[in-house]
Design a protein that fits this description.
Number of helices: 11
Largest sheet: 9 strands, mixed
Distance between the termini: 40 Å
CATH topology of the largest domain: Dihydrodipicolinate Reductase, domain 2
CATH architecture of the largest domain: 2-Layer Sandwich
Number of strands: 16
Helix content: 25-40%
Order of helices and strands: EHEEEHEHEHEHEHHHEHEEEEEEHHE
CATH superfamily of the largest domain: Dihydrodipicolinate Reductase, domain 2
């Protein structure tokens, strides 16, 4: 159960969540917080001995500081993706959790989405053989509903905040590649003259297409992701996954998930929860709670997997800016 919330905004503490937005679901509106403690300061909430798990839902640049403070206070932590803005900060968070004897879980929700959960389970079961090739996509219009979310210095930009969903899932079902090669666009007006020194290095990548290089034997995996679409289509994601004996086709803007098998048949698999995307967030939170109860880190919320996903995103950004393949350390 939700025991408490912490927000600097008195309106949110009063249950007015009309300005809380996201890519899925309706606007929350007025929320009944009866029985829920409210705090204006984090340290006051962390001092509450009735709280076991802290869910960090702030902008990414605040994740490390809050997570470290919560772990030091003896709390388990679930932190929203991305785990941090740098691998060094991610490493510090993982190390702090180990030292505190607490769980550090990262809320990558994509594996809980019905279509992606189905794909992951099919791949990991080996029922239709290994992944031969795959292409993933995730495209949004530029977010204008939050100044923080639109600030690349706070989120890492679309190539981290958005695309990390893809790199996390690719790492989960295909493993971490040896190299990445990416082409893309950066958030800078090329018509302006006199770029300051280092503008390329500091510019946020807004869209990219990446080849994940696993070496001889593959698989051949690519992904396109970014915030470049017009507002008429604010969000779309999907995949085409080619296994040795089946193909999985899914596009959130098109027909339901389709399974093509070697016998020539085509079917639309029944999905857990009837395919409700919002249920994925509840399943993710329940998995975190179950982890705290059992004392075991849930594989889908692994801090290391989240750290690897961040490294992939940053390596892809480096590839876009240098025009070269980047080796994954």
């Amino acid at each position: 159960m939700v025991a408490a919330i912490c927000s600097r905004d008195p309106a949110k503490r009063a249950g007015d969540w009309r300005n809380t937005r996201g890519n899925f679901g309706p606007e929350p509106g007025q929320v009944d917080l009866a029985g829920v403690k409210t705090f204006a300061k984090l340290d006051e909430m962390l001092a509450d001995k009735d709280i076991d798990l802290i869910d960090v839902c702030t902008v990414t640049d605040q994740h490390t500081t809050i997570a470290l403070q919560a772990l030091k206070a003896g709390k388990h932590v679930l932190v929203e993706k991305a785990i941090a803005l740098s691998p060094q900060d991610a490493d510090a968070m993982v190390a702090a959790a180990k030292q505190a004897g607490k769980l550090l879980m990262v809320a990558h929700v994509l594996p809980f989405f019905p279509e992606f959960k189905f794909a992951a389970e099919i791949i990991q079961s080996g029922k239709y053989g290994k992944v031969v090739a795959a292409h993933f996509k995730r495209v949004i219009s530029k977010p204008d509903w939050s100044a923080d979310m639109a600030d690349a210095a706070k989120t890492g930009g679309p190539a981290v905040d958005l695309h990390i969903h893809d790199t996390h899932f690719i790492g989960l079902v295909c493993g971490v590649p040896k190299q990445v090669f990416s082409v893309g666009t950066v958030d800078v007006d090329i018509k302006e003259a006199g770029y300051p020194s280092g503008w390329v290095e500091n510019a946020a990548v807004t869209y990219l297409t990446t080849s994940y290089l696993y070496g001889p034997g593959g698989p051949a995996v690519t992904c396109s992701s970014g915030a470049v679409c017009m507002k008429g289509r604010p969000f779309v994601h999907g995949y085409e996954i080619y296994l040795e004996q089946a193909s999985l086709i899914y596009d959130s803007g098109g027909p339901p998930l389709t399974l093509l098998t070697a016998d020539g048949k085509s079917s639309q698999p029944a999905l857990a929860g009837g395919g409700d995307a919002l249920a994925a967030f509840a399943d993710e939170l329940q998995t975190a709670v179950d982890g705290v109860t059992s004392g075991k880190e849930p594989a889908l919320l692994s801090g290391k997997l989240a750290r690897d996903a961040l490294v992939l995103c940053q390596s892809e950004c480096d590839s876009v800016k240098t025009g070269k393949a980047v080796t994954i350390a």
